[in-house]
Amino acid sequence: MTAPAAPLPLTGTAEPDLVLAGIAKRFGDHVALGGIDLAVARGEFVAIMGPSGCGKTTLLRIIAGLERMDAGTIRLRGRSVGNVPVNKRNVRLVWQNYALFPHLDVKGNIGFGLSLRRLDKAAIRERVAAAAAMVSLDGFLDRRVTQLSGGQRQRVAIARALVTEPDILLLDEPLSALDAHLRVRMQGEMKRLQQRLGISFVYITHNQSEALSMADRVVVMNAGAIEQIDAPEKLYRRPRTRFVAEFVGANNLLEGTVAGFEDGHLLVDGTVGCMAAHWAADDGPPPARGTAVTLVVQAGKLRLNARSPRDNRVQARVVEREFSGTHVLYILRVEGSAGPAIEIRALMQDPLPDSVGAGFFDLYWSPEDVCVIGPGLLPRRIDAPGGGPGNARTGAASIPQLVGEDARG
After folding, report:
1. Dihedral (CA of 18, 219, 406, 28) sign
2. Comparing C-alpha atoms, which of 57, 62, 52, 143 is closest to residue 100?
3. Cα gap 29→70, rounded to integer Å
């Protein structure tokens, strides 16, 4: 819904590790990628997430050279590589299933790429030992990969990719096969390894916690296009489009029309009554009266007590309760002042008190916790650390337009 401003250019003087411009790909009548623009800074960890079929894996395969694009340009450290074969690009890909050789031991798997380069055996042994030490596998070099745990096999795959000293590492859902506890532990290990090595990571995932906990910036894709690129916290707290608000986190979307502007607050008439949203001076001019907008309120921001006279208030009753260990998710029915009742979600650390019962009770949230999205609106000014060229929907790209230079034909 939003028409975001042009993404900010990369900061610093270093050449970006990766620049994509106008990357397009069709499979018959299906548009897999509709013109992707993205730049990855030197040493940056960028996560790309989106629903199945959004084009994220196709984009990764094009960067790796495993898929031909129909239009666009790829530059790796300033070098145009769109027509360069996969074995001549200094990138490596860690597969979802790791693609290890079961008949080889750990050192054979890690050193496989080096043996194809015909390096002498002493050099291979030295580099394999160093790569294994990076991922804490130096005591497992003589083991068969079939004797390793899932986390250890994942480390072998990463070491095999790093031993060839790539300019950039591509990872296609590398943690998806691990159990939940091990996945969380490996997230921390992978982020620390990336920071220590200073190598750019482009990480594909459908898991929001992976993207938000590890990445410097997160790219959200939908239907072959980029919806938003931002630092994880800003993406989570300030979605720029309706799709991102629905896809990331647990948000309530409340529709309404602008009724006015008062004391730094946008007043919106909606189905649950008049709501207020904080509007800072650097947000730009507020939308005009009568403009249709969507207010985004995180489920975790709803509470039982007012903290300010300005707080928004609705009356709700519990419809459903889901206990998840650390939080309780409540599905609540709110009687609208205009139109039918609607359901909202509240995420709370503690269960609601018994006094709430089955009847209606007051629920509050602060105007400062409301994100406003709508036609032509950019919710708060967002400064992407390290830059952030991209082609978020309806936003202009801020990287050079080199479309077609590398594309086939």
Report:
1. positive
2. 143
3. 13
Two structure tokens written together for 308:
């300010």
pLDDT at residue 345 tops 70: yes
Helical segments of 240-362, H only: 242-247
Per the model's pLDDT, the better-predicted residue between 397 and 228 turns out to be: 228
Amino acid at 263: D
pLDDT for the residue numbered 188: 86
Has residue 305 been placed in a domain? yes
Residue 305: partners with Cβ closer than 8 Å, 6 or more residues away: 364
Return d(Cα 16, Cα 91) in angstroms, integer. 14
3-state helix, strand, coil in the chain (%, to 5): 25, 30, 45
Residues written for the chain: 409
Provide the strand spans (E) within 223-360.
Answer: 225-230, 251-262, 265-270, 273-278, 292-298, 312-323, 328-334, 342-348
Both tokens of 332, joined, read 């609540």
Residue 101 lies in a domain: no
- Count: domains in the chain: 2
Between strands 91-94 and 30-40, the pairing is unpaired
50: domain range? Answer: 18-90+166-237
| Residue 135, number of CB atoms within 10 A of its CB | 22
Which 3 state secondary structure label does DSSP give 57?
A: helix
Cα-based distances in Å from 9 to 215, 228, 386: 18, 15, 8
Cβ partners under 8 Å of residue 65, min gap 6: 81, 84, 85, 86, 89, 91
Per-residue pLDDT tens digits for 278-330: 988 777 888 889 999 999 999 999 998 888 888 999 989 898 899 888 889 99
